[in-house]
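Objective 1b of the project was to move from sequence-level analysis to a structural picture of ligand recognition. The entry below was assembled by the postdoctoral researcher (A.K.) and checked by the PI before modelling. It contains the amino acid sequence of the target and the SMILES of the bound compound, flavin mononucleotide.
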Amino acid sequence: MSRKRIPFGVMLQGPGGHMNAWKHPSVPADASVNFEHYVRAARQAEKAGIAFVFIADGLYINEVSIPHFLNRFEPIALLSALAASTASIGLVGTLSTSYSDPFTVARQFGSIDVISGGRAGWNAVTSPLEGSARNYNRDKHPEHALRYEIAGEHIEVVKGLWDSWDDDAFPRDRETGRYADFTKMHRLDFKGRFHAAEGPLNLGRSPQGQPVLFQAGASDDGIKLAGRHADAVFAGSESFEQNRELSRKLKQSAQAHGRQPDHLKIFPGVAPVVGSTEEEAERKYQEIRALVTDHEALLYLGRFFDHHDFTAYPLDDPFPDLGDIGANNFRAHTDRIKRVAREKKLTLREVALNEATPRSRFIGTPEAVADELGRWVEGGAADGFVLGFHVLNAGLDDFEAQVLPILEARGQHRPAQFGTTLRDHLGLPYRDSRYAVPSAGTGEEAA
Amino acid sequence: MSRKRIPFGVMLQGPGGHMNAWKHPSVPADASVNFEHYVRAARQAEKAGIAFVFIADGLYINEVSIPHFLNRFEPIALLSALAASTASIGLVGTLSTSYSDPFTVARQFGSIDVISGGRAGWNAVTSPLEGSARNYNRDKHPEHALRYEIAGEHIEVVKGLWDSWDDDAFPRDRETGRYADFTKMHRLDFKGRFHAAEGPLNLGRSPQGQPVLFQAGASDDGIKLAGRHADAVFAGSESFEQNRELSRKLKQSAQAHGRQPDHLKIFPGVAPVVGSTEEEAERKYQEIRALVTDHEALLYLGRFFDHHDFTAYPLDDPFPDLGDIGANNFRAHTDRIKRVAREKKLTLREVALNEATPRSRFIGTPEAVADELGRWVEGGAADGFVLGFHVLNAGLDDFEAQVLPILEARGQHRPAQFGTTLRDHLGLPYRDSRYAVPSAGTGEEAA
Ligand SMILES: Cc1cc2nc3c(=O)[nH]c(=O)nc-3n(C[C@H](O)[C@H](O)[C@H](O)COP(=O)(O)O)c2cc1C
Ligand SMILES: Cc1cc2nc3c(=O)[nH]c(=O)nc-3n(C[C@H](O)[C@H](O)[C@H](O)COP(=O)(O)O)c2cc1C
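Corresponding predicted holo structure:
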């Protein structure tokens, strides 16, 4: 078989992606602040040949937050500790462009890239939760379009700072006494509307040239930003058609920014549930679905709509008309919820339970799941996947034991890493500096 | 012997504290970005019973910066990776209150405290370098008094956020489905002049209650801040008398803020150079001194005098009359340089070389160095020391092999940690939450 090998990432968010994953017997209840739990999962994934771990994040909690979000590790601290605890797996973490300083972000991900030997990735998000502003001394959370303008500048500064020093700027020659070659230092002198940085960064280039840049917004603004800056997109939808369409748009956007379309990868997030028979898979799915009560599901739904109180509506009436509520948060997602509810005439209870435990397209026998994953990649809907198991331990165990061997037999997986760096794992080239003399078509235009 | 055991910290700043430490054969030339170098030193220190490692930091570089500052790890990333690479040593890192967000700082150090099992410490500094402002999109670097006002609020917010959840706020009961007890959650709702945060933090209390707080400013404002907030002070002077005086003021300041004076520790930074004879110690010192050329020493000296060009003067003439040059930034230091040069009739070369490689009080035989360290602790000038070796590897090897055994024989050291947490190592109690019902005199007033 000569089929394309599929890179996988795995979401590590404490006990799993499900809002009540902490209740599942396969995970420690305190998983989100249990470092040993993270190490065990990262090493298991590494050994299984999974390309990277992925850490999500949030900057605001209240009484209706997902339980394991109340008490979770900060991503930089977690990633760096995982860098020291693993050998070859990629390490991608979420950090907000709306509530951070580019100079610090450049240093932190650059440092993790050096510490890990070239395995760092930054998932740059604009932060959907309004309350974040109140934790960061801001008058208000910037609205959607403005957040993306700020993000564009932020990322421009971070990438500029990462190129502060040429690859060979530090001869460190004890004979001549020359530590640095200042002709290979570049001050950024960036002055924008929202960000400014003189530079240079007090850190040289890292093993990947630059850490990998992920992006996770699928709106038009998100697509534009990804086309300009990102190496990879973490996509939220589990629809083949939507991902194929998103992939098309993303690669077009990359091309429009003078980049090779193949240098922007799309990773849909999927939540496989596998069983040796279809019935067993369905039973496992129902077991996960039973982790959440109706009331909890309503609170969960509210999260996407700026904590709108859905308990005020009758449970078995049609999903309510919400007007503009939710448009400034997870917009692409809330628009979809509204549309599907209307089209399928769903009740509030159905919408809430479906959101709390989405019925994945990837529930079934190992063969069926492997087929579907392969179909997505062959069909142009994915370059790889982020595995967001409902319950991390149970999900990863099953996937490793049952699905990966099938993909391996088909030439779509190997229980070893692709190469040394995360860029290797993802099929991305070393990132040349914007100041590098162009060599034979290796890199691409610096954004 | 029943003498008091002395806690030591060791500065890990790449190759060492000396401006040209990178040239010394005992260290890797790229030490400041060589993670293995850090791990090796941290483990060696841990095994020797040293209480903590200490990471300095800076937010601005240019062509005249100390070479190994041009390219260094960001402290959070470094500390967290070291947390995963060590078992019992304390982990203290520098982070600026002038260029960071309290919500993020609280999360990062809180996370490291959990990941490390209670070994984290934050050295809160206000940042001395004007250029930092230009890397962080600020009009200007806030002046000294203002920096300390900002720092006071910043630390107040961080400490407040650390108490967001009571120690027993997370029952995580799978039977009842109760993950968190919201009656044990505290929103901070802080609104100050410079900082605001609603809270709660999305992280519970950590193994030490709160990470240890270090402070490193010795001005009156610095002393006030330390008295109010700090658990320990990293002191810059190598004078016994000055440290005894500083210690007296610090403990007075703690008392004035309603705290037990013994809960604020003073750690002078010292740079021991030991040899089996006085001559050998002197030879080693001269070897370090020879790492810097006359020209480099002149540039180094210029840093304190607003980059004044000292290369324009004859090297072996008396130190030039500079008038007011240097009175603006490092005044205390430049005044002292001028005074000493006048009193001792030093040449420019001598002044420059003395500045580049200060002659420590701790140069001598192991016995002499051990005596002097002991004298400082007995005499009330120190509760412990931060070892800032000129060259890390050579310095730590000698100190471990020659000085620690003497202190051990005298009952002032043991090659094992004091306890489990950094607070244990420093003789500080668990930090009770401000909301805790006071129990039998364990903690102290919350600041
Ligand atoms: C798959 C996926 C994962 C995301 N992960 C995070 C996250 O970990 N933290 C966060 O603050 N926002 C996260 N977001 C939110 C996005 O970054 C973005 O702010 C939001 O989707 C709104 O942008 P959009 O309208 O372009 O989709 C995620 C979004 C998606 C689709
Ligand atoms: C021993 C010592 C260590 C210091 N370490 C740092 C450091 O790592 N990073 C930093 O930005 N400032 C550092 N500082 C600077 C202080 O935090 C402070 O900004 C400066 O000393 C001015 O404050 P003061 O006038 O109160 O001393 C240090 C100061 C001392 C005395």
